[in-house]
TrEMBL record:
It comes from Planococcus rifietoensis. The keyword DNA-binding applies. Residues 13-73 form the HTH tetR-type domain. It comes from the Bacteria. Residues 36-55 bind DNA. The lineage of its organism: Bacteria, Bacillati, Bacillota, Bacilli, Bacillales. GO terms for molecular function: DNA binding. InterPro entries: Homeodomain-like_sf, HTH-type_Tx_Regulator, HTH_TetR, TetR_C_Firmicutes. Keywords: DNA-binding. This is HTH tetR-type domain-containing protein.
């Protein structure tokens, strides 16, 4: 198996992406515990030897998939801003906040949160990833006197955001990404006047 840090060729990256996509589709269809390596390679139209070039087993694929998706959550929320930038929440618009667009573009993955027999621990990992993004990426200036940069408050924000995302998924993404982003921005404005990118 290749080291996770080793730079892969574009073809290898495509192959891994196809294997991950097939895995996500299969969990959505029949549940995590019923998906085998054979199922994954048949759906992705590769052979088992190709799978084992990149992954030790299903748990190894699972770990990398979760790690990549949740690292992306952190990146999409901070990469559009320069470090040290101060942003007024009153100046935010749908283009200021890319988390919701990322969720929408990766609906098949986030739908796994709605599957009863899903990846073990997945439900806790979404709010944890959002919490880490808030905790590491942003310092908020509150509207009132409370400490909105405390761990409890950022956990509250993270779980609330994850809850809104899951409710959106349950509706079949009925609202547009712009409408959902506007909703989140209005919530942020209710407690934060500005934020700094760490």
């Amino acid at each position: 198996m290749k080291s996770k840090k080793e730079k892969l060729s574009p073809q290898a990256e495509r192959t891994k992406h196809h294997l991950q996509e097939a895995y996500i589709e299969l969990i959505n269809e029949k549940g995590y515990s019923h998906v085998s390596v054979t199922d994954i390679v048949q759906r992705a139209q590769y052979n088992r030897a190709t799978f084992y070039l990149y992954y030790l087993d299903k748990p190894d694929l699972t770990e990398e998939l979760l790690s990549e998706m949740f690292q992306q959550i952190k990146r999409t929320s901070t990469e559009r801003y320069e470090k040290g930038a101060d942003i007024l929440t009153s100046a935010m618009d749908a283009d200021s906040f890319e988390l919701i667009s990322f969720v929408y573009d990766n609906r098949s993955f986030f739908n796994l949160c709605l599957v009863e027999d899903t990846i073990p621990g997945l439900h806790g990992q979404l709010p944890q990833a959002i919490f880490e993004m808030l905790d590491e990426g942003f310092t908020f200036e509150g509207v009132g006197k409370g400490d909105i940069n405390s761990k409890p408050f950022k956990l509250y924000m993270a779980h609330g955001t994850a809850g809104l995302i899951l409710e959106w998924a349950k509706t079949g993404y009925e609202k547009s990404p712009k409408e959902m982003t506007d909703t989140l921005i209005s919530i942020v404005r209710s407690f934060a006047a500005a934020f700094r990118v760490n």
